[in-house]
Amino acid sequence: MENYWKIALVACIFLVSLFSVRKLTIGRYKKEFGPKRRTLWGQRTFYWEGLIGLSTGVTFLILLLLKSGTMLTF
């Protein structure tokens, strides 16, 4: 049962970091690519691919900090 809590914690941290990074970058993305170019699948795929990669890195860093602070044990 303890593993389920760890998986749920990681999923929550990932979703929160994904939402936070998206809120920080969506304005620049909308300004850089106009409304017509944003509807192209290639532009959207590029944006979301980078967003997921960056959020994965942020999640990894948060988990590393939690582990080094002995708040989380693996």
From TrEMBL:
<feature type="transmembrane region" description="Helical">
    <location>
        <begin position="47"/>
        <end position="66"/>
    </location>
</feature>
<keyword id="KW-0812">Transmembrane</keyword>
<protein>
    <recommendedName>
        <fullName>DUF4181 domain-containing protein</fullName>
    </recommendedName>
</protein>
<keyword id="KW-0472">Membrane</keyword>
<keyword id="KW-1133">Transmembrane helix</keyword>
